[in-house]
Recover the amino acids of this structure.
């Protein structure tokens, strides 16, 4: 009788473990990763949920004025450019809104809002020591130009199953 009870208990525990791993295998997380290219030195890596936002700021090479580009992660893990700000018009700077986008002047800046431009990943992003390249995520600000200098970076969103995420966090 006791052996049969232990057998049922063992079967129940194994069933719970299997259900737990099935649940984990169907749950996904996104990791936002910025690396140098081709060295692949990690500059920034953080678990990120959908609709999280971040910004890239740089000095435009022609206009010599700051440009702010605002991105978010959608529910499928795509990178979406949703807003851009700039001080000036000129070569290589936005000049109009398209489709549902809205072109406004606020806070002494030109802004294009309501954008929904999907960015192909990985995003290759060239930075220079003298271009004021800054990455902003939540309250964290990384001055890429000062910390790295002249480099090519990749910005990517990795989709990880809960099991992969768990294994990466313990290894």
């Amino acid at each position: 009788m006791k052996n049969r009870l232990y057998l049922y208990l063992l079967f129940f525990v194994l069933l719970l473990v299997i259900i737990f791993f099935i649940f984990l295998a169907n749950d996904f997380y996104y990791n936002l990763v910025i690396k140098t290219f081709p060295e692949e030195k990690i500059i920034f890596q953080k678990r990120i949920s959908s609709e999280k936002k971040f910004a890239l700021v740089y000095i435009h090479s022609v206009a010599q004025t700051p440009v702010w580009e605002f991105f978010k992660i959608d529910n499928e893990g795509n990178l979406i450019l949703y807003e851009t700000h700039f001080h000036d018009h000129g070569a290589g700077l936005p000049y109009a809104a398209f489709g549902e986008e809205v072109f406004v002047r606020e806070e002494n800046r030109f802004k294009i809002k309501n954008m929904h431009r999907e960015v192909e990943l990985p995003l290759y992003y060239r930075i220079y020591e003298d271009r004021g390249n800054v990455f902003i995520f939540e309250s964290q600000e990384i001055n890429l130009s000062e910390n790295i200098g002249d480099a090519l970076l990749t910005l990517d969103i990795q989709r990880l199953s809960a099991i992969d995420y768990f294994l990466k966090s313990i290894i």
Observations:
- Residues 79 and 120 are 7 Å apart (CA to CA).
- Residues 30-160 form one domain.
- The chain has a mean pLDDT of 88.
- Residues 2-25 form the longest helix (24 residues).
